[in-house]
Structure formats: structure tokens, C-alpha cells
Amino acid sequence: MAGSELKYLLRKGSGRKPDVSMVLPGQRPPPRRGPMRRPPDVMIEVVSPRPRDVHLDRIEKLREYAAFGVRWYWLLDPATRMLEIYELGPDGRYVWAQAAAGGRVDAVPGCDGLVVDLDELWGELDRLGDEEPAE
Question: For the segment 27-52, what is each residue's pLDDT rounded down to a tens digit?
């Protein structure tokens, strides 16, 4: 799993740094330096509340990641408390695979054995939001 500092070269002259990306077991790990030139198995974006960013995550990145060949695209939307998972279809477009708003997701498509506890995730976001900013 990689954080937001790993850059993916989607096409010549164009790259993205997703919030999180995952290369599943059995795949080659990302390079130690420089941009990644092959798609990871999963790209995860956290939807920002700004309308421009919602459009970017839901429309632009969806198209770009599909064209790059990313098999799974996840959207985590703190405003709606939703996890949406899309799978790349044989036609090169994403299709809806799963969505959940709370509870535990015990069967994550494409990620055997992975469990996502959304109640814990949203609770952690609430706790972080309640913290006072450092002076």
C-alpha cells in the first residue's frame, strides 16, 4: 500500500498522486524512486467537499484511472459516509461493484481477506474533526 506521495504516470506528461494506492500480493511492488508507469490494483480517493474536487474524483479521475488500467477504483466520501467500489470492465469502463455506508465490509471485491470497518473509519474521522488545531 502506498500513500499520496507515489506519483503514477498516467500518460506522457500527465500524472496523479492518489490518496492511497494498493498493489496486491503477487504483483510487482512500486519503484523506490520516480513515477510508477504501470497501474496499481487499487486506487483510493477521498472525496473533498469542494464541488470542483467532487467532479474531479467522480468524473475526471474515474476516466483517467480506467484508461490507465487500474482494476479497482474506490471512493470514500466523508460527507455521505459512503464507500463506493468500481471494477474495470472488459470494455475499459468502470462498473459499480459494491457500496456501503457503515458496518463491516467483510467481502471486499478483488481483495480476498480484507475487511473494512466503516464504523471505525467514520468514528476516527469524527474524533479527528473534534480535535483542536495545534497552536
Answer: 877 777 778 889 999 999 999 888 88
